[in-house]
Design brief:
The structure holds two protein chains of two kinds.
Chain A: E1 2-11, E2 14-24, E3 29-34, H1 40-48, E4 55-60, E5 63-64, H2 70-75, E6 78-81, H3 93-100, H4 110-120, H5 122-126, H6 137-150, E7 155-159, H7 167-182, E8 186-190, H8 194-200, E9 203-208, E10 211-217, H9 218-223, H10 225-230
Parallel strand pairs in A: 3-8, 3-9, 6-7, 7-8
Antiparallel strand pairs in A: 1-2, 1-4, 4-5, 9-10
Chain B: H1 2-21, H2 25-42, H3 50-82, H4 90-114, H5 119-143, H6 149-171, H7 180-193, H8 204-223, H9 231-251, E1 255-258, H10 260-268, E2 277-282, H11 309-312, H12 333-356, H13 358-368, H14 370-375, H15 380-406, H16 416-429, H17 434-470, H18 474-483, H19 490-504, H20 513-519, H21 525-540
Helix pairs in contact in B: 1-2, 1-3, 1-17, 2-3, 2-4, 3-4, 6-12, 6-15, 6-16, 6-17, 7-8, 7-9, 7-15, 8-15, 12-13, 12-15, 13-15, 16-17, 16-19, 20-21
Bound molecules: adenosine-5'-triphosphate and magnesium ion.
Chain lengths: ~240, ~550
Amino acid sequence: MLELKDVHTYYGNIHALKGISLTVNDGEIVTLIGSNGAGKSTTLRTIQGLNKPRSGSVVLNGIELHKLPAHEIAMLGVAQSPEGRMIFPRMTVMENLEMGAYVRKDLTSFNDDLEHVFSLFPRLKERVTQKGGTLSGGEQQMLAMGRALMAKPKILLLDEPSMGLAPLLVELIFDTIKKLNQEGTTILLVEQNALMALSIAHRGYVLQTGEIILSDSAQNLKNDEMVQKSYLGVE
Amino acid sequence: MKNIRSGITFGIVGGLLTFLFGGWSVAVIGSLMGVGLGMVIIGKLERKNPMQIALSVLPTALVAGSILVLFSLYQNNFVQEAIGKRPAAVNIVLYGNLIGFLGAVLFTTLLAGMHGLPAKQEQQWRMILLAMLVVAFPFIDKLTALRWTAQIIFALIFVILGLGLNIVVGYAGLLDLGYAAFFAIGAYTTGMLSSGAHNIHINFWLVIWIAAAMAAIWGFMLGAPTLPLRGDYLAIVTLGFGEIVPVLFKNLINVTIKEPFTCWILPMFKIQTTCKVFVENFDLTLGEKGISPIGRPWFPFFGNLPTNVNTIHGQWAIGSKWLYIGEFESSNPITWYFLIIAIILLSVFVIRRLRDSRLGRSWMAIREDELAAAQMGIDPVKTKLAAFALGATFSGFAGAFYAAYISGIFPSVFDFSASIIILCVVILGGIGNINGVIVGGLVLMTADRLFLPALKDFLASLLTHTILPSISDPVVQLAVKDNANPILYRFLLFGLTLVIMMAVRPEGLIPNPQNRAELHAEEEAPVVEAETPKTKKAKKG
Ligand SMILES: Nc1ncnc2c1ncn2[C@@H]1O[C@H](COP(=O)(O)OP(=O)(O)OP(=O)(O)O)[C@@H](O)[C@H]1O
Ligand SMILES: [Mg+2]
């Protein structure tokens, strides 16, 4: 459904993405792994229209996303739990979640979805009236993900969803991602925790300094010697 | 105990105000003081049974009332003499102070007592009380010959301006330093379309909508080029617009519009044509002279009443039509007062609906984080333009009213300082809070239009009758005389108010709960908790 073809993205003269091509099929979990500064977040930002590619194309179900402004891309059902969270600091948890549902025309299941988010993150329910900016780092991460879920996206872009979370919660997050996927959400997952990511993903891409150097099924990547050495910390 | 302290403060401030006005003013000041004191102290009271609360604030109310009366009596017996006036007649003093005292005590305890009711009922009763005061005010003002209404109307004009600017600055977070431009556009639209200047006489009731629409269109057009800008840069560009607009109105006195093709391009190639001129040397805005007189509103439904205004002006109960409150005449502020109150009510209603709408939520999201808002599916361009255009609409109303009320407009009224004063109203009251902006506008502008001039007169009389005769050195005498005019220090006082506000209470007099939480996280956290469920409900609805 989502296809990037030879995407080049720049920050000024910094050539951050040097011809990325990747596909995410309906119902898949695809993971993007790579070291710091490889361009993972930039790839997600480019898909979401926050950065515009200088050349190449981003196509979702036949629609050329790279020609659309960010808010229209969101309207098409692309939601992101961004790196750095980007929650609304002076809005309450509840208001943040409501903002997540802004794209939806049909709000009949709003309360059910809210309950769903709260059942995933009971912590958020306890804090509905607290300002987003005063949440702890991990709580903000939950809020960012909850907010993205409230949009009921067709494709969910997750940028390091486990960052800053306690190990138990990391497990929970990965279970959640898997469950969401089983419920029909397509997911593009960026993770530092490559082992975890590869264990739930169907396929994966390895990114290095703006280029894709490897792409394979998650299982194969996990067994790949280079991947093991560079990203899984296996000696 | 803290309440008693508020009581003392209010009593002293109220008492000092009676120094400026004397006579019946103590009655009005006492009642207003009671309302203010009541509003301030209920924030710190817990909900108990109404009678108990009322009794618990009674000492505070009595203290405030007594201090007021003491000041007022001192004023009448000593200050009046010092400023060279005779003390007021005994019955004025007696009844004035009695009403002032009772008003202070009654309103303080009444408001406190209402706090004992369930929150919703309290709200309703408070609104009823305030509505009665708002309606009664101009008549009381007339009976007591205070003549405050005409100045209060100016304050109310700035309330509307503040409400409009609050949409742009408070809700959407776009710092606009040239907002007075839209006020000018509203006023000039009214001026051009309903004065003799261009032989167009459109009825005020229609022209006010045209003015609002014009302001909105220009809000849209001036907003468009600022879209990519943020923060400081936006402020600088709006500052530029704010400067350009009054200069344009000053200089559009010689407008010539020719068709470029026949007048310039063809003659360049030595082709003979008749040049087509649309307008030549047309005086659009009448420059520095300004436009006057400007048409006034009238009541369409009182046609068969006496039309000779001189005989009826000021009478609000005449003939068979008891509703009749007079014509829209400069000598009769009451009609204007109710007109602007109506405009404010309409504005508040509309702005509240906007705030709680989908658009309102997108304004707040843009203000918080533009990129994140775009990720939520919010169109930053549309959202910002809507803020500029809707914000400007309200200054269009204010401009139309202003032009008709003054019956004349001059470019200098709308310069940079006007923009800054409107911004002060918003900041003083509480950015992002409708009630705050209303209070801010009333406080700042009554201080400016009512208290400063009164203080000036007061000081002048005090100088001539008491201080100057006691100064022997003529040089010092002259220096004192020339500088003891508080109006000279108007902007100094504005600036000082802002500095003090920013230092002591940066969230404004009546803060928006979101800002309060941020600026006083430790002290006031519980208040915030209590208020959020309400906003939440409003948003859902
Ligand atoms: N706003 C920016 N301006 C300039 N350069 C940037 C900007 N954002 C990212 N970059 C650069 O682009 C490159 C890719 O950054 P990106 O954030 O995509 O990395 P990443 O793979 O997400 O890394 P990490 O794992 O650390 O999050 C880096 O070299 C980074 O320095
Ligand atoms: Mg990153």
